[in-house]
Write a structure and sequence with these properties.
The chain is α+β, with helices and mostly antiparallel strands. It contains 3 helices and 7 strands, in the order H-E-E-E-E-E-H-E-E-H. It is elongated and about 105 Å long.
């Protein structure tokens, strides 16, 4: 058998990795610290009926209000029927557009589905001004408006029917 030469053990060369530079905390300068109102505005709006939260991501959604918006502005937008609200921050804006980032979207708990107590009436949402309304179908007249929820309008209708029947 031929003699097997053992490899001479060579000492491994240590590769020196430079230590990362220590992180230096730089104190925040007064010129970078302001009262919120000095740097940005907070806007509140009500979306048109049928709007969805994701609609706000299209820059064209902001066509009529883009001129009012600035980078870092905050937006709170409510669904017309109160089903959801969202918060967004403006990333960039122009005269008839804006690009926003959604911070959060909250789908609010739907009201319970109480049955209407009598035929011939509808309960409809008519926006922030009139809120939930009771509508008489035979002449399409609003008999009650301003209720805060669908359930409140139905309870009012039940009382109204008891009085007049």
């Amino acid at each position: 058998m031929p003699a097997v030469k053992e490899k001479e053990a060579r000492p491994q060369q240590e590769v020196s990795v430079p230590a990362p530079a220590p992180h230096i905390i730089q104190p925040l300068m007064p010129s970078r610290f302001e009262i919120e109102e000095a740097l940005r505005a907070r806007h509140v709006g009500t979306a048109h009926s049928g709007s969805r939260p994701e609609d706000v991501l299209d820059p064209a959604y902001w066509a009529h209000v883009g001129a009012k918006l600035h980078v870092r502005d905050r937006i709170e937008l409510w669904a017309d029927d109160g089903a959801w609200f969202l918060e967004a921050v403006v990333l960039s804006a122009g005269r008839n557009w804006a690009r926003v980032h959604l911070l959060r979207v909250e789908h609010l708990t739907p009201q319970t589905q109480i049955e209407l107590p009598a035929p011939g009436y509808q309960v409809v949402y008519r926006g922030m001004q009139d809120k939930w309304c009771v509508l008489r179908e035979m002449d399409n007249q609003i008999v009650q408006k301003g209720e805060d929820s669908r359930d409140d309008a139905i309870v009012w209708l039940a009382g109204h029917i008891k009085v007049y029947q």
